[in-house]
Every structure is written in C-alpha cells, then in structure tokens.
From TrEMBL:
Top-level taxon in the UniProt lineage: Bacteria
SMART domains: UDPG_MGDP_dh_C
Catalytic activities: UDP-alpha-D-glucose + 2 NAD(+) + H2O = UDP-alpha-D-glucuronate + 2 NADH + 3 H(+)
Family note: Belongs to the UDP-glucose/GDP-mannose dehydrogenase family.
Protein name per the record: UDP-glucose 6-dehydrogenase
Biological source species: Falsibacillus albus
Positions that bind substrate: 155-158, 208, 253-257, 261, 324
Length: 435
C-alpha cells in the first residue's frame, strides 16, 4: 500500500521504516525543512540504533521517501498517519495545535477517500475533533469527499524503537468504520504481532494514556518505597526482585531511581490528570505519580549533599545526561535537574554522556564536557550516575578510583553492585539501599 506519514520525528520515521520493512511504499512529510534535508542526505538527525541503516536501505529500494510537500503525499496516498508532536501546555494539557494544523492541511488538499490515522498520543475525543476539523475544511471547499478517522496509538520505546515498531507486542486499532478497519488490518497483515485489538477510537486513545501512566505508576511506587527503604535500612533493589517473582507483578518497571524522564511519561501522566480535572474528577493516584517524580531527584541530591558535607566548590562529575541509555534524547531527563541543582550549589561540574552532550551544551554552556568517563572523573570529589549507560556499569572502577580526588559514588540508577564498589574502597550511595 501507499502510506503517507506527517511528522518525521522518532515515531514518524521508525513507523515509516517498519511499514517499508513490511513491503509498503511510504512517504514521510515534515514542515521542518532542515530535518527533511537531513533525511534526504540519508542522515538521521537524532540517534536511534539501526534506524539510519534501515532508512538508507528502504530509500535506496524506493520504498521510502522524505519531502516537505505535504499536499503531494496527501493526494498520493489513501492512508495518512499523523505522527506530529503533542507536547505539554503549561497547564499540563496536551497541545493539539500541530494535530489541528496537519488535519487542516488534509481537509484542504484531499482529493478522494482517505483514512486518517492518529498515531500521536492524544486525549480521548481527538479522533472526533480531527474529523470535525477536516469536515470544516471540506465544507469551506464545498466538498463532501468521504473519509474515516482512526486511532492507532504507538507503544515503541526509544532505544528499542526499531524492534518495537517492526515486531510490536500489540497493535491497537480504534475505528468506528468497517472500511477503515479492513484497510488497517491490511496494513498490518505482514506484522508478526500476537495481539491485534480492534476497539472504538475513544477506547484506543485511553489505552495509550492508561498504559504510560500505569508504567509510570510502577516506577513512582518503587521510588516512593525507596525513600522508606532508605530509612529502614532495606534494599529496594532486593525488594523489587522479590516482588517481581510474582508473575502478577512482573519484574519490569520496578527499578527505583532518580525519576522517569523522556518525551512521554512526564507529559502523558500530566495530560491524563488534566483530562480528569477538566471533568471535575481528580485522579489521586496519577497526581501522586507525578508528584513523586517531580521530587525524586531533589530527594536524592539532598542525601548526596549530606553525605559529602557540601557541593559548594566541590568537583562533581555527572555520568549520563540522556533520559535513559541508548538514545540522545534529553527531554525531561533527570540529569537536567541534577545539573541545575549543582549549579545553584556552586559546584564545579564535569559531565560525560556517550550521545547526549551536544543537546545539553545548549542549555548549560558553562559546565565542563569531557570526552570519556575517566577524563570526566579526574579530580572529582564525587560522581553522580544519572543514566545507566553500559560505559558506566562496565567501567574499570578500580582505575577510576585512582584518578578521583575523593571516592564518593552517588548511583541514581542503582546500576552498580554496592558490595563490589565498597570492596574497591568507594563510599557508595544508591537509591533506597542501605549504606
Ligand atoms: P517529535 O517531536 O520527534 O516529531 C514530531 C514531528 O512533527 C517534528 O519533526 C515536527 O516538525 C513535525 N510536525 C509538527 N507539525 C507538523 C505539521 N503540521 N506538518 C508536518 N510536520 C509537522 O515527536 P515524536 O517523539 O515522534 O512524538 C510524536 C507523537 O508520538 C507524540 O504525540 C508522542 O507523545 C507520541 N509517541 C512518542 C514516542 C517516543 O518514543 N518518542 C512513543 C510513542 C508515542
Ligand atoms: C515509554 C514507554 O515504555 C513506551 O511504551 C511508550 O510508547 C513511550 O514511553 C511513549 O509513549 O513515548 P520511553 O519513554 O522511550 O518509552 O522509555 P522507557 O523505557 O519507558 O523509560 C522511561 C523512563 O522511565 C526513563 O527515564 C527510565 O529511566 C525510567 N524507568 C524505567 C525507571 O526509572 N525505572 C524503571 O524500572 C523503568
């Protein structure tokens, strides 16, 4: 099939690669010219393992192309996916202006029957809203071209985006139209997906917000519990291991740390809480999930500061800047809160991250960016691990100790073995682990 995708971000491009992988012809449009130029030069303007190679392959096989000509791809394809951003407004609500703009363009240019599929994460009711926006545009053109709108939320994880997009664990299709559902099933026919669920658009929209908020809740639950474990001398990592042995609980998303970041959990939890507040409902659990996350890094930093005596004038190394390993994405990363705090406390800051330094340089030009972990740790009074890159978990910590001024390790991701670190002579502090 010929598929159009509007929005050449993480989701739009990985979805495009997955569709091309499964034999479709995919056309991706973005209104950011620089981004499109980069893709046309076979360069991915962000880091995602395996994506650049896949895009090169499919572009060369003429299964994939990038353009700024949105009109052309709208007219040339029966199915149009919207993968534009839905960032937080200051109120916490999702900003639907990019969705609205793209929907208007579809209404303006569509020439025959279309299925418009919303892949972006959007509040319940957005599929109907997009339908109305398109309808208004058609009315203005005095046209009554038929079309359907569908919800098809995306569940990929950054860092594993390609494997998640090519072989997803679940595909959720929210459609009120049999014709559109048949087309959606045809698109996904070649995917090796064990669970294809067809439901209403509103249900599909809620499944996305509920999934992200539930995963965030698991993390915030463990982070809050870590604060109690800390006082009681209990190891939260052992607790999560023991809890996860119950298959009803499972091991995933129980790792306590300095909070979840990224472009989605913080925004989607806030948006869900806000959707409820607009209906005079308060989702106490979701609000608590957000509140724990807001304060987790600060709680950890205050403990670290007490252990060290003070951050003022001390040489502090932050290892890891991205919101998780295997990405260059620093959106809502806990490292930013850490650097901000250290700057206020007048620490001397050195940082290293395998992929995220360029982005952080723009926010904090005054700190010292190093080319490898050992260089970053040289003369450090303490190291704070903010992201569990394997460059840090597999570091030669014996050699690292020789270059550090003082042997303090504040492990914000519980990524190192406390016993090993203590045996090497470090003063090790994790999240919710006994000293
Ligand atoms: P992104 O910011 O990386 O990309 C969005 C792209 O849309 C940008 O390149 C922007 O220029 C483009 N755009 C905006 N308005 C446009 C318009 N009118 N016409 C053409 N292009 C336009 O965003 P993303 O991370 O890919 O996320 C997209 C959506 O998918 C969001 O709703 C997000 O919540 C959701 N999502 C993201 C992930 C993820 O891991 N990043 C996973 C699942 C769902
Ligand atoms: C998350 C979801 O996992 C995806 O299913 C979803 O599609 C996506 O959001 C989205 O909607 O954008 P992602 O943000 O890429 O994916 O990354 P995750 O692996 O979920 O990690 C999110 C954050 O939680 C990271 O900061 C990570 O460090 C933190 N985390 C994760 C923990 O603190 N503890 C854990 O046990 C797991």
């Amino acid at each position: 099939m010929k598929i159009a995708i509007i929005g050449a971000g993480y989701v739009g491009t990985t979805t495009a690669a997955a569709f091309a992988h499964h034999g479709h012809e995919v056309f991706v449009a973005d209104n950011n010219q620089e981004k499109i130029k980069a893709f046309q030069r076979l360069k991915v303007p962000f880091y995602e393992d395996g994506l650049e190679e896949a895009l090169k392959e499919f572009i060369q096989k003429n299964l994939l192309s990038f353009t700024t000509d949105i009109k052309q791809i709208i007219q040339g394809c029966e199915v149009i996916f919207l993968a534009v951003g839905t960032p937080s407004l200051t109120t916490g609500e999702a900003d639907l202006s990019y969705i609205k703009e793209a929907a208007k363009e579809i209404g303006r240019y569509m020439n025959d029957y279309k299925v418009i599929v919303i892949k972006s994460t959007v509040p319940v009711g957005t599929v109907n809203y997009v339908q109305e926006v398109i309808q208004d545009e058609l009315k203005a053109r005095k046209s009554n071209i038929p079309f359907d709108t569908v919800s098809n939320p995306e569940f990929l994880r950054e860092g594993k985006a390609m494997e998640d997009a090519i072989d997803p664990e679940r595909i959720v299709i929210g459609s009120d139209s049999e014709r559109a559902e048949t087309i959606m099933r045809t698109i996904y026919k070649e995917f090796r997906c064990p669970n294809i669920m067809c439901t209403s658009p509103k249900n599909a929209e809620m499944i996305k917000y509920a999934s992200n908020s539930f995963l965030a809740a698991k993390i915030s639950f463990m982070n809050e519990l870590a604060r109690l474990c800390d006082v009681l001398g209990v190891d939260v990592a052992e607790v999560s291991k023991g809890m996860g042995l119950d298959s009803r609980i499972g091991h995933q998303f129980l790792q306590a740390g300095i909070g979840y970041g990224g472009s989605c959990f913080p925004k989607d939890t806030k948006a869900l809480a806000q959707i409820a507040l607009q209906r005079n409902l308060s989702l106490g659990i979701v609000e608590a999930v957000c509140a724990v996350n807001e304060t987790q890094a600060q709680w950890f930093l205050e403990k670290a500061e007490n252990a060290l005596g003070s951050f003022s004038g001390k040489q502090i190394t932050v290892l890891g800047l991205t919101f998780k390993p295997d990405t260059d994405d620093i959106r809502e990363a806990s490292s930013l809160k850490i650097i901000d705090y250290l700057v206020k406390k007048k620490a001397l800051i050195s940082v290293f991250d395998p992929k995220g330094m360029e982005h952080v340089k723009k926010l904090f030009p005054g700190i010292s960016y190093k080319t490898d972990p050992l260089q970053a740790l040289t003369n450090a009074d303490a190291a704070i691990i903010a992201t569990e890159w394997k460059q840090f978990t597999e570091l030669d910590w014996k050699s690292a100790k020789k270059v550090m001024a003082q042997p303090y390790i504040f492990d914000g991701r519980n990524s190192l073995d406390p016993e090993v670190m203590k045996n090497l002579g470090y003063v090790y502090m994790g999240v919710g682990r006994p000293p």
